[in-house]
Design goal:
alpha+beta, YefM-like fold, 2 domains, 5 strands, two-stranded antiparallel sheet, flat, three-stranded mixed sheet, 24% strand, 78 residues
């Protein structure tokens, strides 16, 4: 799996799409943090359990301000 920065993804989108068309997955990062994955259309997860697992993995460690999402949920804030 190849990883590229957001700036490179913007400036070389055509090249990245060619790689994806060949079956590769490209991860786009911003400041070293994974923000997106470009995958071939025929490799999309269709099983809802796979989608839920991917969402849980993506949100791991995500913080909003100084409080984590879990802390806000525990406090009853929205």
């Amino acid at each position: 799996m190849k990883s590229v920065g957001a700036y490179e993804a913007r400036t070389h989108l055509g090249r990245i799409l060619e790689q994806v068309e060949r079956g590769e997955t490209v991860v786009i990062t911003k400041h070293g943090r994974e923000i997106a994955k470009v995958i071939p259309a025929d490799q999309r997860p269709s099983d809802p359990e796979d989608v839920i697992a991917a969402l849980r993995a993506a949100r791991k460690g995500v913080r909003r301000g100084r409080d984590s999402i879990r802390e806000m949920i525990d406090e009853g804030r929205h």
